[in-house]
Amino acid sequence: MRKELGLLNLICILIALGFVVMAVISALDSGDFLTIDNLFIITVSLMMALMFIVSPLLYLKSQGKLPIPFMKRTALSAADDGPAPLKLRTPAQTPPMLDAKGRAMPPDVKAIVNRLNQAEAGKDA
């Protein structure tokens, strides 16, 4: 299965590069760049390249081989690098806050209650 995924991703990358090359050739080979036909061919070629490159990029992201700038690291990857300075609690780790009928409260209501509790604790101190 792994070899098949690698082969399919390689084929998708080659097709995407082919569409990018087609867009570049269309842009360089045409006499007038701003014609409707030329802009249409370039746009369609780049959109097709985008469609074929998304699958390999998502595969690389799921494998953790694609670094995404400006994205926070997860707790699991931070644990590999060393101790994380601040670990956020996931909703699964916090006990559910229940209303009077025993139903779980939505996360936004829990956040409001937590802010109110912090404000009351600040007044008492």
Mean pLDDT: 82
Proportion of strand residues: under 5%
Percent range of helical residues: 55-70%
Q: Can you write the helix and strand succession as a string? A: HHHH
Number of DSSP strand runs: 0
Q: Label the structural class.
A: mainly alpha
Number of helices: 4
What is the total number of structural domains? 2
Shape: elongated
Rg, please?
26 Å
- Biggest sheet: strands, sense, closure? none
Unreliably modeled segments: none
Distance between the termini: 61 Å
Topology:
Elements: H1 2-29, H2 36-63, H3 75-81, H4 107-124
Helix pairs in contact: 1-2
Task: Please tell me about this protein's structure.
The protein has 125 residues and is mostly helical. The chain folds into two domains: 2-63; 94-125. It is 65% helix and 0% strand. It has four helices and no strands. It starts with a helix and ends with a helix. The model has no long low-confidence stretch (mean pLDDT 82).
Could you give a quick summary of the protein structure above?
With 125 residues, this protein is mostly helical.
Question: What brief labels describe this structure?
Answer:
125 residues; mainly alpha; 2 domains; 0% strand
